[in-house]
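Dear colleagues,

I hope this message finds you well. In preparation for our joint manuscript, I am sending the GntR family transcriptional regulator (Bogoriella caseilytica) sequence together with its predicted structure, so that both groups work from identical material. I would be grateful if you could confirm receipt.
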Amino acid sequence: MVRLDPHSEEPPFAQLRTQLTAQIADGTLSEGDRLPTVRRLAGDLGIAPNTVARAYRELEGDGLIVGRGRSGTFVTGPGGGQQPTAADREAAAEAARAYARAVRSLRISTGEALVIVREALRA
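The corresponding structure tokens are as follows:
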């Protein structure tokens, strides 16, 4: 289940993307699971369909989901089906903590920091 915080600095599309990414990573959503349609999820969350569509586009760009036209949108899994090792996860977590410290010291907002990370991951 996804819950959006209207008081968060993070925009709704980013909250949705973050939560779906976490659910895919922790196995709550598994490879092959079908996601709700953009309109249905937007209605359930009380947000604009374009907000959900943006989150889905970014998740697709990350290789976590795939849209199959009228058939729907499906989870492909973290790393396109490859599971990271515990050591890989810990190394990534440490890198994320270091990044968070740097972002705080630079007084960059959470939303902007996430934009920077997404751009870096796409590069």
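For the figure legend, we might mention the following. The chain has a mean pLDDT of 89. The CA atoms of residues 89 and 95 lie 10 Å apart.

With kind regards,
E.M.
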